[in-house]
Design goal:
seven-stranded mixed beta sheet; four-stranded antiparallel beta sheet
């Protein structure tokens, strides 16, 4: 099992930026990919993007493409989500998740709140 702790959320004005961090511990050697998800009030959880742990390849949802960048620091077992040009519709609880070798996200952090004011 992998333990994940997110940080970096907060309140920001529209057009601003935030960088979220996700520190991983535990069985991190089995991690195939790390993902960022978000859930807004009354909505289902959706993927923001993901990064493969070894090769660093990334995927982004269309709603954030061009505004968000996911990166990783393998030495620190940490994944980052840099969010720029934030919009009120980006307001949500953001979660990081870890996927095993088969690609299923099975470990989740507790979430961090991001609120974007207009």
């Amino acid at each position: 099992q992998v333990q994940l702790v997110e940080s970096g959320g907060g309140l920001v004005q529209a057009g601003g930026s935030l960088r979220l961090s996700c520190a991983a511990s535990g069985r991190t050697f089995s991690t195939g990919a790390m993902g960022w998800f978000r859930q807004a009030p009354g909505k289902v959880r959706e993927i923001v993007g993901q990064i493969t742990w070894s090769g660093g390849g990334t995927y982004y949802a269309e709603s954030v493409k061009g505004r968000c960048t996911i990166s990783r620091d393998m030495a620190k077992n940490t994944v980052y989500l840099q969010m720029n040009s934030l919009k009120p519709e980006d307001t949500a609880v953001y979660y990081c998740a870890s996927a095993g070798p088969l690609g299923q996200f099975d470990s989740w952090g507790q979430g961090t709140q991001v609120t974007v004011s207009s």
